Amino acid sequence: MKLLDGYKVPVEWEEGALWAKHQLDTYRALQNHDIVINTYPTGSGKTRALLNAIRKLGIKRALIIAPINQLIYQYKESVEKFVEIYRLPHKVVTITSESLDATKKPHSKALSDVLDEFSNIIAISNPDIVHYVIMQIYGKRQIAGNLLVKLLRFPQLIAFDEFHYYDLSRIFFMIVMLASSKHFGLNQKFVFMTATPNEEILKIFSNLGMSYQMVSLSQDGDLQPVASPLKMKLLFGNLDDHMDEIIQVLKENSESDILVISNSLKRIARLASLARREGLDFGMVTGPMNADERRCALERRIVLATPTVDIGYDFSRPSKDRQSIDIVIFEAWSHDQFAQRLGRVGRVFGKSKHDIPSKAYAILPDYLKDKALEALEKSKDRLQLNNNMSHVFKERTENLKREYIGPHRILIGLYEDAFKLIFPEEKTGDFVKEMLDNYYGLLESIFGFKQYSRITRRTEIDFYYFSKHLEEGEEEFAVRILERNQQLRDMILEKYESQEELLIAAKLYKKFVEEQILSFRLGQGKMVYVLDEKKLTGAKEFLYDEVAVLTQYVVEPLPFEEIPPIYRSEIRKGFKLIEPLEQKVKVSLDIRTRAQRRFFIPTKLKTHQYFSGSGTLRFDGFPVFLLDDPKLSRLSYAYDFHPIEAIVNGIATKVLIGLEAIKAQSYFEEKPWECDLFPI
């Protein structure tokens, strides 16, 4: 193992207290800039930097957006503690489905009450709710518009935590908030907390005419240790390839606090089975587990986890005078994963002992072996290793405009249509109309839309409205859409030979738009009830993706009446886990289509495999991207996509489906807008 030095952060005294310098620099930068990006490493006190900015700048209303609920609960504790220590007048509220449920009011009404609060308040929300409010699909039509207006005017400061967690297709709501603040003169401040700022986002700040400043780690001035020295070892393959060595590490370090993270629930379940056989005491933290189960698991000396713990989990051990986690073992398929998981080990900020080395075993893909070993050899400390490793993982160029002139182009059109309903033309004067037209023009310029795309986009959006009216039995409204949109009518006549075919296509298109474009969290299939009496996954019962269950575990179908009543309204199938499969079943697909392009939405997409208790699995409304060129297959692996074997109209090939197909069309094609979104 190679020994690497730890790193320190600059500190500074203010108001008789010692602060990490960035906790002061953040509020100082906000005094003169619209936006501050705090890029300090994990575990160096970015939350305190944000809260201090709220205190020092006299912010009355702040909105903190955290990517997952677990981080929201952690935030709430930190904010309440800070408010108490500094005797701030702020009320602290959370905005999640669970917290809105607790009000005993409809969610939209409960949220409206929060946004009407104009006294001192710090609201902490997940991005899902913010996204759905922005798109005006949170609550009934007449309420949704009011919620959007209230959301846009509510905060004086908006903070986005763990911003690198969002990919480009999930930042639409953030761009709308920035553009609205600038265009309507809301004079809001923005804080982004991310270790890896996206160059595309920095361009947007500049294009909007918003000033920003980075607060980045330096090694100047008075320094205080944040990360301990580190003994580092690189392994290659995946967790399965190193089970014996990992078990040995767990057995030999029983007095240490150890964290193991795998990208696969199945692999972590297999490690748990081996550890159980060796008599090791451990806890598991996995997606299927509930909050209480996870809380208990975190108290164990050994924690086996899936990526669930990447964000929002505090492994603090208050009784220890050194680092909380002594050893970390993790898989990493990207630089973000590598940096995030390595940052879990050896945190010593505020600890009395900071020179006891931690240990890390990073398991990387085989193809990175030579470059990764060279990067480690050239590194003298942890910061240098992190920088060197950023060049090891395959770089990929992402362009926000390509993303939004590809299939995601529908999103901005749906937003504009909904926004116009708040300010109907017959009730607004020329000044308001001109201001709104300029606003829509500003948004379209950010996303790279040009005039030529408007007609195509209008047809695609109207087909969604048409499909929605048909499903809701509002045929009269559906006919009106065809009467006003000649191009849509011609398109339907050209593509669909019968009323039955049109109805099937309309149903699939509505599902495609709502699940692959409008939804904030995208799924790959149907959810099923799972009974895991042996706790192979760490939880006894949970809901999980049907494909993942059937391709990774030996299962026994459960009769519908054995599914607990609380799940029956949303779940039709249940399975009992017997044991992990020795080898994951590789799904292959049967696809039928008349499409002539690489990207399409097929009317028939199902697995060749027949699964006991499920039959063949269907993927209704899922887009497909053909990997009909070896270069495209290689490119898909660079993007960490998952090609699937398929027979398309009798021809064997590989494909991407769902969000990966959308991204492939956006990034792989020379002209991403040349794609047909009509199911065929």
Which terms summarize this structure?
Rossmann fold, 7-stranded parallel sheet, alpha/beta, 27 strands, 19% strand
Brief description of this entry?
The chain has about 675 residues and is an alpha/beta fold. About 40% of the residues lie in helices and about 20% in strands. The protein contains 25 helices and 27 strands.
Helix content: 40-55%
Report strand order across the widest sheet. 1-12-17-16-13-15-14
The amount of beta strand, in percent, is: 15-25%
Distance between the termini: 56 Å
CATH class of the largest domain: Alpha Beta
The radius of gyration is 26 Å
Task: Describe this protein's structure.
The chain starts with a strand and ends in a 12-residue tail after the last helix. The protein is α/β, with parallel strands linked by helices and 680 residues long. The chain has 5 domains: 11-215, Rossmann fold, CATH 3.40.50.300; 228-390, Rossmann fold (3-Layer(aba) Sandwich), CATH 3.40.50.300; 402-449, no CATH class; 527-580, no CATH class; 588-668, no CATH class. It is built from 25 helices and 27 strands. 41% of the residues lie in helices and 19% in strands. The radius of gyration is 26 Å and the shape is globular. The mean pLDDT is 90. The strands form 5 sheets. A 7-stranded mixed beta sheet has the order 1-12-17-16-13-15-14, with helices on both faces. A 7-stranded parallel beta sheet has the order 6-7-5-8-9-4-10, with helices on both faces. Strands 23-25-27-26-22-24 form a 6-stranded mixed beta sheet, covered by helices on one side. Strand 14 (283-285), helix 12 (291-298) and strand 15 form a beta-alpha-beta unit.
